[in-house]
């Protein structure tokens, strides 16, 4: 994978040297250009030195240039750039008319005495900066060289290959981050480690580093940190000036109107009540003072009003009164902006964010002026609650999105290990863009450091939505890894990260306590099953173990200088996610095993404790890395929530000699109860995997055991010894097994006891081509076939028997499934909505052939918890079996943060939607899922033939006949 196109150390004719054996090109930037041009050009010089060890001289004099040079500047502000463009093939007029655009490349004989140059020409001040940092990236300097200690390559020479590349304008006008929930990370690190000279706030030294990063990522906007204990951005001396120097647009969050940080700046003792209904004069004066102070800077003003800190707006007893009050607030704020700007208020950038309670006011008649950008929030878990209607899209102010990569609040925080899949970011933000949301994209990144990958992808998408969205996120992850750590391990790194996101999509590491916040509740029993579906909990931990070990092996193979960055960006989140799951699930197992009387319960309790200790060790390593540069940045227990505490564990205290007992898959038996003969779930030929039988000790000492079986039962071991547990995997030798349903026996003897395990089986003939199925073209082999097993037919959505596209279409999407990694999404993202009576004719359908013996079935479709674009719009799929009329289902649960169904959906990243159906025959059937509305994402489906009691977290493993693969 070539990640540094444009740069070579083996030059051809026409290539221009920056650093060669013979010379180092000077770097020119005009002294009359924007200040950020000098900043970016100087950083480019620093980057060239990082890579080559040679620093170019920086000059503002064209007369000093000879041989070759790097010329950086803004069209119309740089004499050198303007003169060079005359000798280039760039359409200068077109480039100059575009915002934040640039051209980078080579020009022959651009000026008298100059043989050639590398030209970086920006259409405006940020375009110039983006161009300079683009060249930095091409020579190998990562945007995260400082923030994640990503190393730079060593090169003896740098040549820019002949030609010019033009980039821009960006898809989204304002693209930025919100530093938020900084209490236990960003602020502590800034004040105690990075900039102790600013003990009461986050100062210009910290923001300067942040703003450089934003420019390197081609972002342009900041919502500054604003929690209690953080000095307001404008009250910290130097912050405003550094924003201007780096050409960063300053805005404020949804609860900070008119550039005021109310948490820090509003004092109830001297200012009175924060209530516009009772204290309008003081509040207006408060807003006016700030607007007057910052009116000559490049800003985005938040209009509207909420409580002091992410709470409801005070004032108004009824909904109508609150709407009227907020309308007065906005009208007054507009008057203030008009009074203190030379341009009309319609030209002053403004946003209104209908977040939480303000959305209700917006729905009920609040009139937001046409020129104000309406910024739509997601539901705090990455799913957009609302998008503009066709009528709303006509607003001159446009629309934006406020998107959470980090969140503090109901039903539970996710602030520690960022795990929003890039595929979800793409799915939701591409949909938003197609609905006209292209004025502002703001990412809540929390402390920034846990969200490096996700933030970079967010900005990559914001710059070129359509170009990035058409590629899989797996490809992007591989490219990202190659840029950070070289191409040799890029695909392997992408694979472990993809699995990390898949596992977290099923349940985030912060949510493995099965509890909630506001109020904080005690931890509950995890619902990953330790006894069903092949030991679902163990399979999850084994998946984490595989990627943790793979990530460690990759890290050991990397050069020493890459290991800190790799640990921060890859190893730490994977290792800690594994440990959090191990801490919760091994504690759960210890409690289960204690109830079964297993001596080994204490072993699993210790595994739980050891896992949480590994988190502490990894966090210490993180904070001490780079000679303590990151001390205080990473907290392994944000807000000290109960989920981070050691879970309760179990142990057996009765002392007795070695005592053999057995537990089998599917049965959570309790000590001293249950039948003498245990029974594993039926094994269906071609479909089911091996079942497990646990032999365990209820006492102390060694148990020597033997097993005898029917000759067709495949038992991996038939004798051995153990002190605590011995798990045996039971399969079937189908070549010698009976050809009809039967039940075999395993007899296990040890420690003076003999116990039996029943092994029921259901043989099946190998599926063949179906030439007689009335609904489908004769002669077409319809495979795979899904088969009922133990009352369940489990289907992964990305394994359809057939796909019938229509006016809508189904498309596989990597990274959006909790089980396989690939889900099926209805397209286009802003496509047709099919009328219920036209589903069969106009909607695409996924078809899954399955076999079942039942008169009635319940179909559960598991979908990503995406939302309809508006409150009045349904969010639908349709389902049918065989030739029955489709049942159209609206599955949206968008009832707000207090809605229990929505809370369940976002914590498990899944909606479980059910419908009941009658079957007219036993045997083979076809399940059809129809794409009725756009952006419906189907993960999997389960057909229940004997009730839908859920026995495991993700549901049964797929029951596809694997002999057809």
From TrEMBL:
Q: Keywords, A to Z?
A: Hydrolase, Plasmid
Q: Which domain of life is it from?
A: Archaea
Q: Where is the Gylcosyl hydrolase 115 C-terminal domain?
A: 785-958
Q: Which residues form a coiled coil?
A: none
Q: Which Pfam families match?
A: GH115_C (PF17829), Glyco_hydro_115 (PF15979)
An MF annotation (GO) of this entry? hydrolase activity
Task: Tell me the protein's name.
Answer: Gylcosyl hydrolase 115 C-terminal domain-containing protein
């Amino acid at each position: 994978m070539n990640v540094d196109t444009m740069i070579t150390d083996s030059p051809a004719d026409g290539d221009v040297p920056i650093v060669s054996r013979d010379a180092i090109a000077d770097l020119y930037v005009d002294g009359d250009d924007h200040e950020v041009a000098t900043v970016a050009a100087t950083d480019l010089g620093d980057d060239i030195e990082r890579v080559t060890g040679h620093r170019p001289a920086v000059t503002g004099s064209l007369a000093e240039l000879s041989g070759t040079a790097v010329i950086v500047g803004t069209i119309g502000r740089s004499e050198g750039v303007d003169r060079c463009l005359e000798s280039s093939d760039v359409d200068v007029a077109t480039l100059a008319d575009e915002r934040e655009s640039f051209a980078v490349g080579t020009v022959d004989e651009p000026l008298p005495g100059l043989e050639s140059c590398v030209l970086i020409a920006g259409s405006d001040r940020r375009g110039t900066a983006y161009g300079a940092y683009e060249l930095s990236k091409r020579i190998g300097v990562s945007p995260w060289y400082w923030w994640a200690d990503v190393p730079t390559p060593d090169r003896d020479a740098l040549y820019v290959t002949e030609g010019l590349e033009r980039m821009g304008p960006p898809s989204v006008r304002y693209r930025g981050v919100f530093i938020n929930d900084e209490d236990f990370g960003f602020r502590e690190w800034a004040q105690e480690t990075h900039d102790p000279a600013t003990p009461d706030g986050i100062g210009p030294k910290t923001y300067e580093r942040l703003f450089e990063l934003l420019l390197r990522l081609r972002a342009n906007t900041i919502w500054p940190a604003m929690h209690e204990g953080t000095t307001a951005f404008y009250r910290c001396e130097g912050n405003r000036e550094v924003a201007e120097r780096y050409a960063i647009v300053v805005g404020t969050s949804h609860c900070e109107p008119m550039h005021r940080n109310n948490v820090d700046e509003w004092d109830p003792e001297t200012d009175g009540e924060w209530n516009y209904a009772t204290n309008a004069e003081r509040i207006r004066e408060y807003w006016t003072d700030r607007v007057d102070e910052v009116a000559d800077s490049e800003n985005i003003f938040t209009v509207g009003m909420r409580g002091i800190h992410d709470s409801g707006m005070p004032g108004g007893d009824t909904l109508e009164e609150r709407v009227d009050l907020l309308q007065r607030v906005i009208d007054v704020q507009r008057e203030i902006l008009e009074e203190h700007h030379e341009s009309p208020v319609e030209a002053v950038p403004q946003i209104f964010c209908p977040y939480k309670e303000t959305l209700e006011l917006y729905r009920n008649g609040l009139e937001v002026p046409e020129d104000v950008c309406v910024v739509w929030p997601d539901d705090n878990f990455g799913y957009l609650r609302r998008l503009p209607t066709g009528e709303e899209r006509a607003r001159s102010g446009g629309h934006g999105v406020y998107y959470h990569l980090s969140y503090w609040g109901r039903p539970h925080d996710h602030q520690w290990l960022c795990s929003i899949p890039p595929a979800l970011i793409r799915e939701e933000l591409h949909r938003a863009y197609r609905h006209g949301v292209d004025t502002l994209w703001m990412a809540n990144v929390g402390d920034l450091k846990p969200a490096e990958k996700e933030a970079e992808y967010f900005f990559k998408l914001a710059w070129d939505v359509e170009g990035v969205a058409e590629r899989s996120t797996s490809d992007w992850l591989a490219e990202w890894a190659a840029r950070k750590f070289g191409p040799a391990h890029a695909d392997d790194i992408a694979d472990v990260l993809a699995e990390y996101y898949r596992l977290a999509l099923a349940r985030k590491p912060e949510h493995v306590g099965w509890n909630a916040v506001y109020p904080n509740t005690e931890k509950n029993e995890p619902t990953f099953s330790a006894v069903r579906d092949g030991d679902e909990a163990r399979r999850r931990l084994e998946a984490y173990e595989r990627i943790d070990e793979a990530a460690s092996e990759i890290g050991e193979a990397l050069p020493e200088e890459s290991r800190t960055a790799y640990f921060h960006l890859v190893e730490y989140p994977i290792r800690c996610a594994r440990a959090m799951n191990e801490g919760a699930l091994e504690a759960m197992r210890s409690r289960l095993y204690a109830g079964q009387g297993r001596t080994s319960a204490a072993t699993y309790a210790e595994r739980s404790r050891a896992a949480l200790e590994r988190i502490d060790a990894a966090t210490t390593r993180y904070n001490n890395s780079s000679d303590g540069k990151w001390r205080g940045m990473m907290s392994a227990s944000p807000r000290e929530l109960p989920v981070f505490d050691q879970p309760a564990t179990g142990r057996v205290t009765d002392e007795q000699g070695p005592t053999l007992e057995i537990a089998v898959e599917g049965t959570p038996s309790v000590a001293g109860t249950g039948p003498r003969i245990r029974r594993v779930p039926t094994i269906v030929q071609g479909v089911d995997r091996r079942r497990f039988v646990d032999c365990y000790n209820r006492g102390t000492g060694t148990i020597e055991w033997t097993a005898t079986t029917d000759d067709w039962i495949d038992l991996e071991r038939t004798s051995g010894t153990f002190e605590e547990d011995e798990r045996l995997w039971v399969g079937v030798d189908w070549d010698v097994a009976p050809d009809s349903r039967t039940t075999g026996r395993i007899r296990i003897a040890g420690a003076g006891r003999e116990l039996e395990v029943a092994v029921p089986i259901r043989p099946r003939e190998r599926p063949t081509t179906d030439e007689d199925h009335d609904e489908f073209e004769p002669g077409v082999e319809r495979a795979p076939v899904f088969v009922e097993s133990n009352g369940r037919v489990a289907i992964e959505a990305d394994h359809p028997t057939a796909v019938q596209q229509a006016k809508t279409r189904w498309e596989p999407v990597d990274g959006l499934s909790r089980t396989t990694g690939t889900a099926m999404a209805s397209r286009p993202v802003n496509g047709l909505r099919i009328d219920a009576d036209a589903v069969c004719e106009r909607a695409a359908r996924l078809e899954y052939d399955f076999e079942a013996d039942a008169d009635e079935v319940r179909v559960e479709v598991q979908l990503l918890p995406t939302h309809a674009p508006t409150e009045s719009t349904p969010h639908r799929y349709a389902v049918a079996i065989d030739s029955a009329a489709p049942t159209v289902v609206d599955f949206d649960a968008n009832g707000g943060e207090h809605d229990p169904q929505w809370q369940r959906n976002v914590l498990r990243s899944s909606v479980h939607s059910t419908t009941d159906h009658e079957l007219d025959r036993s045997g083979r059937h076809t399940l059809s899922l129809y794409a009725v509305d756009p952006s419906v994402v189907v993960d999997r489906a389960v057909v229940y033939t004997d009730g839908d009691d859920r026995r495991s977290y993700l549901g049964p493993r797929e029951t596809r006949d694997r002999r057809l693969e």
